[in-house]
Design brief:
86 residues; mainly beta; two-stranded antiparallel ribbon; 2 strands
Length: 86
């Protein structure tokens, strides 16, 4: 018998302990066996920028990174940098 974690609903990062007991048809039961599995967040976040394609001079400019995502839902920093200008 196996246990499988659905890839579309991944476990959050952290330490998980699983236990297995096995019984036979005579109702004999094994001693419990345990395993500790460390789930690590090894996937980089996905950056999504929402911005207008043009804006009039003197008008406000709004940039958003709100649709960026992380598999662990744990984005802790949004760092904007202006890398070129006229």
């Amino acid at each position: 018998m196996n246990i499988t974690i659905d890839a579309t609903k991944p476990l959050k990062a952290g330490a998980y302990t699983f236990q297995l007991l096995v019984s036979d048809d005579s109702e004999n039961q094994s001693r419990p066996a345990q395993v500790r599995v460390l789930v690590i967040d090894d996937k980089a976040p996905t950056t999504v920028i929402d911005a207008p394609t043009s804006v009039g001079t003197g008008r406000p400019l709004a940039l958003s990174g709100r649709r960026s995502s992380d598999i662990g839902d744990n984005i802790v920093d949004y760092r904007w940098t202006l890398i070129s200008s006229p």
